[in-house]
């Protein structure tokens, strides 16, 4: 297939490389053009604009930050929507609000273009390995038509319902990630303050009912003081704002999620928004007035 890929961030870059490795023809575009270099070296065409990136494509993938960013690359000047042929499929793999996904779907439907919201879980590691979980909302027939585009990117690819359903599922995913991570941070703090080696504690409890992706992947990073992103604090804050807004509209209290949101706000207040989400541990350290390893 011919694929246009917009957004060469931490996620988009390795995902575009996996599509190239699977034999698809890929055009890439990024707002900061230098970030296209790796994909271009691997055989991608460097598009001059979102519109150029979408030209002739069977599927166009957006992988940028938030709802206004997806709308900008699709519908802004020289936007991808202008380059897409009728019958092509637009796929958004960013995490955005379910309402924005539904709005984009109906705008594109007017142009004869189907839209799938297809956010992912599995982090930078899953993006590199092609083992992401992909949750898809939108037209089922369009999903079946371009299913092979998803194959090199993930190993659990599920059509969950109509437009917006993928983003709602991703919002649930983020509730779980944030609260799992809070548990990991508090467990590491307790072990460290009680004189137990956190790495030993993590490897022991990973064998039982307490295991989680956060424990296996972020626990060791916390234990060695590695706060490089991964998934940035400022991005999970965007996602938790989406969750809390959706819950507010439903009149649903989500007090654990609200707490995690406040912890990450403390990260932001300390200038840690560009760090990985495991920096939540720094908030736990500040609350407990201790430092791991000191
Ligand atoms: N990282 C993860 O572990 C992870 C996991 C699951 C889902 N996600 C989601 O995937 C999406 C991308 O995340 P990421 O980690 O790859 O982020 P990132 O490394 O910060 O990259 C963001 C990308 O979006 C582009 N961008 C942002 N605003 C734009 C705009 N207005 N117009 C054009 N391009 C714009 C950036 O372009 P520039 O290079 O020019 O800044 C960059 O290519 C986000 O929605 C995130 O929530 C991330």
SSE topology sketch:
Layout: E1 2-6, H1 12-21, E2 25-29, H2 37-41, E3 45-46, H3 50-54, E4 59-62, H4 67-75, H5 80-83, E5 89-92, H6 98-109, E6 114-117, E7 120-121, H7 123-129, E8 132-138, H8 140-150, E9 154-161, H9 165-193, H10 198-205, H11 213-223, H12 233-250, H13 255-269, H14 280-288
Parallel strand pairs: 1-2, 1-4, 2-3, 4-5, 5-6, 8-9
Antiparallel strand pairs: 6-8, 7-8
Helix pairs in contact: 1-7, 9-10, 9-11, 9-12, 9-13, 9-14, 10-11, 12-13, 13-14
- Detail the poorly predicted runs: none
Compute the number of helices: 14
Mean pLDDT: 97
User: What is the general shape?
Assistant: globular
Describe the structure.
The chain has 294 residues and is α/β, with parallel strands linked by helices. The protein is 52% helix and 14% strand. The protein starts with a strand and ends in a 6-residue tail after the last helix. NADP nicotinamide-adenine-dinucleotide phosphate binds next to α4, β7, α7 and α12.
């Amino acid at each position: 297939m011919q694929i246009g890929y917009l957004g060469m961030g931490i996620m988009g870059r390795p995902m575009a490389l996996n599509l190239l490795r699977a034999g698809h023809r890929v055009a890439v575009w990024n707002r900061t053009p230098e970030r296209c270099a790796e994909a271009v070296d691997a055989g991608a065409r460097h598009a001059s604009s979102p519109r150029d990136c979408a030209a002739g494509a069977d599927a166009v993938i957006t992988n940028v930050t938030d709802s206004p960013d997806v709308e900008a690359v699709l519908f802004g000047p020289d936007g991808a929507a202008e380059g897409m042929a009728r019958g092509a499929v637009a796929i958004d793999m960013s995490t955005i609000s379910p309402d924005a996904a539904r709005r984009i779907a109906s705008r594109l439907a007017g142009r004869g273009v189907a839209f799938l919201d297809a956010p992912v879980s599995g982090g930078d590691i899953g993006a590199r390995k092609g083992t992401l979980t992909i949750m898809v909302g939108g037209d089922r027939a369009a999903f079946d038509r371009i299913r092979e585009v998803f194959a090199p990117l993930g190993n659990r690819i599920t059509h969950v319902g109509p437009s917006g359903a993928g983003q709602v599922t991703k919002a649930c995913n983020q509730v779980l990630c944030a609260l799992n991570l809070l548990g990991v941070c508090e467990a590491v703090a307790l072990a460290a303050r009680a004189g137990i080696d956190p790495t030993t504690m993590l490897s022991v409890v990973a064998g039982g009912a307490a295991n989680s992706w956060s424990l296996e992947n972020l626990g060791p990073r916390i234990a060695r003081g590695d706060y490089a992103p991964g998934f940035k604090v400022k991005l999970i804050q965007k996602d938790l704002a989406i969750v809390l807004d959706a819950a507010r509209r439903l009149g649903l209290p989500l007090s654990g999620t609200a707490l995690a949101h406040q912890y990450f706000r403390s990260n932001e207040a300390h200038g840690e928004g560009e760090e990985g989400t495991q920096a939540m541990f720094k908030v736990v350290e500040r609350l407990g007035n201790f430092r791991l390893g000191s």
